[in-house]
Write a structure and sequence with these properties.
It is a single chain. The protein has helices spanning 28-39, 55-76, 121-138, 158-182, 193-201, 216-230, 233-249, 259-278, and strands at residues 21-26, 43-46, 83-88, 92-96, 102-103, 114-118, 143-148, 188-190. It is of the alpha/beta class. The strands form 2 sheets. Strands 2-1-3-7-8 form a 5-stranded parallel sheet, sandwiched between helices.
Length: 298
């Protein structure tokens, strides 16, 4: 007997390769998933200007990234990112009354200085499509993943929180439907993180103590589903090869000066050298402050 429903996830038309160049922008859920990729040595940039909860702020981050990173990429001849993932948290925005500008962070200024608004489906889609158009103009081959954060917003009230999520879901669907008109090749993919938490996990044990944010276990499960769906066989092989080395680098020895530990370090360094021979992107040396062998991250 089945006691839960499993969310069916369609495979995208592209795959994520080992150490892929990636950009993550959005809510703190983007932070959670982006950090998974960073830990696994993908060349991921995660919320470079802070957490961005709404589509307008996601556009602001993309504009800054394009502006500040373009020269660097032009010098090397390498496109900035091949994968961008946007995690949509809310359609609520705060507009500074003095200027009329939507701000990304109120910076603890008095609430009376701001006006809270709710973006419509069309406005959410417009901000996202502008962000995607900027990225595509710079790198026509970039693939964009949209997802809606499963984090609940108690401050809105749970009904209003659900209405906000519904707006984002419909905006994401509109972007996907518009993609064939906007871009010449299939470029947009929706990953159902929101649906996995709400329709598959469906239990408060998969939330943190605040009952609003997904637990580490829930994030790990979503990460596993994402691996199954989006990673190439080469990327999955990389994860298998990297796992024992990552665990070794995180090992804290009882006696760092013992012959046994020195032999363990030497063997690990040898395995890293072998891995680098197959994956040239691993350019720096490993770090483990307990070992005292390097100060640079692998």
């Amino acid at each position: 007997m089945e006691f839960r429903t499993i969310v069916r996830i369609e495979k995208p038309t592209f795959e994520i390769q080992p150490m892929e160049r990636m950009l993550f922008v959005g809510s703190c859920f983007a932070d959670n998933i982006g950090k998974k990729f960073v830990e696994e040595k993908f060349r991921a940039t995660v919320n470079p200007y802070g957490v961005m909860y709404n589509p307008a702020s996601i556009l602001h981050t993309v504009e800054k990234v394009i502006s500040q990173e373009k020269d660097k990429a032009d010098e090397t001849g390498v496109a900035m990112f091949r994968i961008a993932l946007f995690t949509l948290g809310t359609n609520h925005v705060y507009r500074l009354k003095e200027t009329g500008e939507i701000v990304d962070n109120c910076q603890k200024r008095p609430a009376r200085l701001f006006q809270e608004e709710e973006l419509s489906i069309d406005l959410c889609a417009d901000y996202l499509e502008r962000a995607m158009t900027l990225l595509k103009a710079y790198n026509p081959d970039i693939k964009i993943v949209l997802t809606v954060s499963p984090i609940r917003y108690a401050k809105y009230g749970y009904h209003t929180s659900q209405l906000s999520k519904a707006t984002l879901l419909l905006a994401a669907e509109k972007c996907i439907n518009d993609a064939s008109r906007l871009f010449p090749t299939p470029s947009i993919y929706y990953f159902p993180a929101y649906e996995i938490v709400n329709d598959e996990l469906r239990d408060y044990r998969f939330y943190r103590e605040d009952m609003l944010h997904p637990s580490d276990q829930a994030v790990e499960y979503i990460w596993q589903r994402l691996q199954e769906t989006m990673l190439s066989k080469e990327a999955k092989q990389w994860l298998r090869e990297w796992k024992p080395i990552k665990e070794a680098l995180n090992h804290r020895p009882f006696n760092p000066d013992s012959p046994e530990h020195k032999a363990f370090v030497e063997k690990t360094m040898q395995r890293i050298a072998e891995l680098k021979a197959r994956y040239p992107e691993l350019l720096a040396q490993p770090t483990n402050p307990v070992w005292g062998i390097s100060t640079r991250p692998i």
